[in-house]
Automatic annotation (TrEMBL):
Keywords: Amino-acid biosynthesis, Aromatic amino acid biosynthesis, Lyase, Phenylalanine biosynthesis. PROSITE patterns: ACT, PREPHENATE_DEHYDR_1, PREPHENATE_DEHYDR_3. The keyword Lyase applies. The keyword Lyase applies. This is prephenate dehydratase. Pathway: Amino-acid biosynthesis; L-phenylalanine biosynthesis; phenylpyruvate from prephenate: step 1/1. Residues 4-179 form the Prephenate dehydratase domain. It comes from Pontibaca methylaminivorans.
Amino acid sequence: MSKPIAFQGEPGAYSHQACRKLRPETEALPCRTFEDAIDAVRSGTASLAMLPVENSTYGRVADIHTLLPESGLHIVDEVFLRVHINLLGLPGTRLEDITHAMSHTVLLGQCKGFLARHGIHRITGADTAGSALHVSQTGDHSLGALASPLAGEIYGLEALAEHIEDNSNNTTRFLLMAPEPDMSRRGGDGMITTFVFEARNIPASLYKALGGFATNGVNMTKLESYMVGGSFTATRFYADIEGHPDDPNVRLAMDELAYFTTNVAVLGTYPAAPERQ
C-alpha cells in the first residue's frame, strides 16, 4: 500500500481537496501545521506533502517561501484549485439565523462582501475544515463555518449559501513536495522550474542577475523577495521560470544568474499545470 500525502488542516480542508484532485487514488494524511506535513515526509510516514503557496485573492501564503528552501523536499507537481466557499451550518439552520461565521483568516478575507451584506461577524479559526468541525460540535445555530463543500459533507453540515467568495476566479496554487527531485518528465503544457537565490549587496546586482533570462528568451512568471534572518541587507528571491534546466537557453540563463548571486538553489522542475493556459 502506498504511503499517504500529508497536508495541513483537518479532513475537508482545501489542501485535502487538492490532494484528491492531483492524486485521487492516494490517501491523504491531515497534519496540524505545515512543518508537521513536511516532517511526515522526512520521517517516511508520508510519501508526499501538499502545500499551498498563493491565492489569487489574498496573495502568497505567509511563511511558505521560508519553509520551502529549508524543508529539504523538492517540488514535483503543481495544482490549481478553484476555491469555492460555502457558508455551512447545523442541519435545520437558516441563513438568517447566522450571526457569526468562523474560518481561517485568509478565507474570511475572501468573502468580506457577503458577510457585510448579511451582517455576519467574523471569528478567526485555526483553519477552514477545523472551523467546520467546531461548528458541528457546538449545537449553536447562530454560528456558521466558511469552508469547502467537502468539509460540509464530512462533518454533516448544510450549505446555507454556496460559492460566496467575492472574486469569481478565486484560486489557490498548491505545490506537491517529494523527498527526491524528478527531472525526467516533460509536461504537455511545458515545464516550470522554481528556485531561490540571494542577490549580492552591490548596485545593479539584481538587474544583472536577471538579464540572462531576457537575453536567452526565458519567461519568468514569478519573482518575489523576502528578508533572510531578519537582515535588511540580505534579501532572498523566489522565482518561477518556464522551461527545464536541461534546455540550452535555461542553462545559459541560470549560469549567468549564478555569476551575480549567491546561494542559488533549485527547488524543483515539474510539469506546468493545464490551468496555467
